[in-house]
């Protein structure tokens, strides 16, 4: 189909954005509202030609954007943030529709778009020479976005990429294409054509991004299994990759906590966004001297959690985002029920409904080799276990192939920090559930990822080091 120039933003029509223009397709797909099961708006599926055109557009735009002063890039990013905030109501409605999130939490995601960063430089000097270490942009980058936080994780790749002087092509998840496509459409009002583009489609399009010879970097957020495929495919052209993958985060509760205050917070860490968070709490270890009382407070809070449609009122949790993940999470319920594990809170049988709703559930002290302990459910079901020996529980927490996040809870902050430093995870939170922030680098250890993004350090993931050695005149 022929392209048309971006003009007035309509929030019920969706396009790929290629070289500053809206582009449709003869092939379409659509998301599904996970709260109702109803089909959402049509979105175009990008073709090979669409992707190649986008890459050519970025290649053409890159030299001028690379040479745009950093302060000017910052200025445009702030204007872009303001533009998005001016459409916060429309973006929030879209986010509720495509993810099922309660309005409060969708609003928080939309509200988190603003921010600015600084690119580091280094110098070294001795009697013989002066060395300037600077950082130059890579060129054309690709961002592959997951479905759990489709807007904030898009912006989390777009902002550092273009701030450092790169151009970026975003591929939203086919489950949640709407806010990402619309965000990139809005970006055309601020940035030159080709700097920020979007191509929507399926897994095949993602594979084309990873093998395209003119794309210098892939930033991927998603599952470990897919991340390995991205890395393997990107290796063929020695692309830079940043992989933010799954986690099986441990939360260690020390015996000196304020039980009534901390237990609800630990529950929030497990069930935020209906457990569909790579860095959510997935395993909870509670000191045996407070285990019974702490678990009871967790159960009390969990039973008070409202689950429902974003339009039904002030719900804390929405549905699982898609039917594939819904079936996977139900598998953890079925396994736990078949093995006879104790359900401290939640129902082992999932009621049928139009949406993909699951009541938050706590499994009381399943064995350490159980599926619910060993694997990441990515849904609102979490196990608890008691502990008595600190060395042993640290070992248990680290006994996983993942290492994305972790939490330590304790009134003695210094002691809690000592425990935190021994946990093998990229981000460890003391007296808080997992709350990554754009002000600090975010990435995983072990199979939870390669590299990191966000924070000043994370900007370097979009750069090549460029070192200039200047030798002094010896005359």
Automatic annotation (TrEMBL):
Family from the record: Belongs to the aldehyde dehydrogenase family.
Annotated Pfam families: Aldedh
InterPro entries in alphabetical order: Ald_DH/histidinol_DH, Ald_DH_C, Ald_DH_CS_CYS, Ald_DH_CS_GLU, Ald_DH_N, Aldehyde_DH_dom, LUC3-like
Catalysed reactions, as listed in the record: an aldehyde + NAD(+) + H2O = a carboxylate + NADH + 2 H(+)
Catalytic residues identified in the record: 244
Protein name, entry field: aldehyde dehydrogenase (NAD(+))
MF term (GO), any: aldehyde dehydrogenase (NAD+) activity
Keyword set, alphabetical order: Oxidoreductase
EC id: 1.2.1.3
Organism: Lophiostoma macrostomum CBS 122681
Residue stretches making up the Aldehyde dehydrogenase domain: 29-466
